[in-house]
Design goal:
- By secondary structure, the protein is of the alpha/beta class.
- Helices cover 35% and strands 21% of the residues.
- The chain contains 13 helices and 15 strands.
- It has helices spanning 61-76, 84-90, 98-116, 120-124, 143-155, 171-180, 199-203, 223-231, 245-254, 270-282, 296-305, 320-323, 354-360, and strands spanning 2-3, 6-22, 25-39, 42-47, 80-81, 130-132, 135-137, 161-164, 186-189, 213-214, 236-238, 259-262, 287-289, 339-341, 363-367.
- The strands form four sheets. It has a seven-stranded parallel sheet with strand order 7-8-9-10-11-12-13. A four-stranded antiparallel sheet has the order 4-3-2-15, sandwiched between helices.
- It binds 2-succinylbenzoate and magnesium ion (MG).
Length: 370
């Protein structure tokens, strides 16, 4: 049984090793909420991917902390569940806030896998021992800097390069990169910065052999993406606008895209991520595992999810050492030749570096049954 005896919330701030510019702003550090669930002498750990401000989607760290403390944790603390799906159902009547609910669900999966003494990937049904990864590169100062950044990561063996774009900076970096690297797997991500009025500009990207164009239109749209897809040869990939398996079904049925970026936290946890994966597979649409600049905890969860069979395109789960001088976990998560090994051992296979985390934590609180 999955027993939830106590919980711990931690909040850490980590400096990013690179400046990450997207269509919605510049990031130089990451504020990361972590959740530990304890039971039966074991612990499961998860990471929240909502941000300080609602830039990517609508959730925020402050909102998540409030919901964990006052609403979600009181629903699970002191209780015993048959499995993580049953625990998730205990939060199933709440609307939205999927990233916050995912924190509880994902920590429960880790705890459950450790209780059964199997790797999380095995419980989810994945078989790969390593997963193909690419890299997501922020907007650079100019074409030369873009090509330089691409070259460095191609040389490291990454299997796909994704360039962030925005209106006024789209064809330029793509044309320069394609000229320097005619054969690499190349994609772009607009993070919702365009509208249908930009269809002509986006259609110009058809000339560069992109594997997909990620989330060009509004974060909550499916209909305009379907209209845009009819005007483009390049497949669209949905990120922001898929928050559930139902969204995935609707998007694929509408023809809003041909590829889905699965982020386990965005859709509410591993069980829902697997349903998104399955629905996409039924539509013949490949999926890949996205990232939110996670620390080692979220990164390890992403790697385990990526072992499912329809993750046939390289994910964004690049080496942890790209992001952090010091990670929150004890184990390295390093890709070699674009292949990320799946951490072995029970659960996610990674463990919190307590000394480091407690040293930098801006918040650390214990929660017990009332
Ligand atoms: O759109 O995929 C995105 C990071 C933060 C928010 C949204 C996105 C991203 C990335 C980075 O692209 C992926 C990563 O390296 O984790
Ligand atoms: Mg994206």
């Amino acid at each position: 049984m999955l027993q939830i005896e106590s919980a711990e919330i931690l909040l850490v701030r980590l400096p990013l090793k690179f400046r990450f510019e997207t269509s919605f702003g510049v990031q130089t550090e990451k504020l990361i909420p972590l959740l530990v669930l304890r039971g039966g002498g074991l612990e499961g750990v998860s990471e929240g991917t909502m941000e300080f401000a609602p830039m990517y989607r609508e959730e925020t760290i402050a909102g998540a902390l409030h919901l964990l403390r006052e609403v979600f944790l009181p629903r699970v603390l002191g209780r015993t569940f048959a499995n993580p799906e049953a625990l998730h159902d205990a939060l199933g009547s709440f609307r939205g806030n999927r990233m916050a609910r995912a924190m509880v669900e994902m920590a429960a999966w880790d705890l459950w896998a450790r209780t059964l003494n199997v790797p999380l990937s095995t419980l989810l049904g994945g078989r790969k021992e390593q997963v193909e990864v690419g890299v997501s590169l922020g907007i650079q100062a100019d074409e030369a800097a873009t090509v330089d950044a691409v070259r460095r990561h191609v040389e490291q063996g990454y299997r796909r390069i994704k360039l962030k774009i925005k209106p006024g900076w789209d064809v330029q970096p793509v044309a320069a990169t394609r000229k320097a690297f005619p054969d690499i797997k190349l994609t772009v991500d607009a993070n919702s910065a365009y509208t249908l009025a930009d269809a002509g500009r986006l259609a110009a990207l058809d000339a560069y052999g992109l594997t997909y164009i990620e989330q060009p239109l509004a974060w909550d749209d499916l209909v305009d993406h379907a209209e845009l897809q009819r005007r483009l040869a390049t497949p669209l990939c949905l990120d922001e606008s898929v928050a559930s398996a139902q969204d995935a079904r609707k998007g694929l049925a509408l023809g809003a895209g041909g590829v889905i970026n699965v982020k386990v936290s965005r859709v509410g946890g591993h069980a829902e991520a697997r349903r998104v994966h399955d629905i996409a597979q039924a539509f013949g649409a490949p999926v890949w595992c996205g990232g939110m600049l996670e620390s080692g905890i979220g990164r390890a969860h992403n790697i385990h999810l990526s072992t499912l069979p329809n993750f046939t395109l390289p994910g964004d789960t690049s080496s942890a050492s790209r992001y952090w001088a010091q990670d929150v976990i004890n184990e390295p998560l390093e890709a070699h030749d674009g292949l990320m090994p799946v951490p072995q051992g029970p659960g996610t296979g990674v463990t919190l570096n307590r000394e480091f985390v407690e040293g930098v934590a801006e918040l650390q609180e214990e929660h017990r049954p009332q």
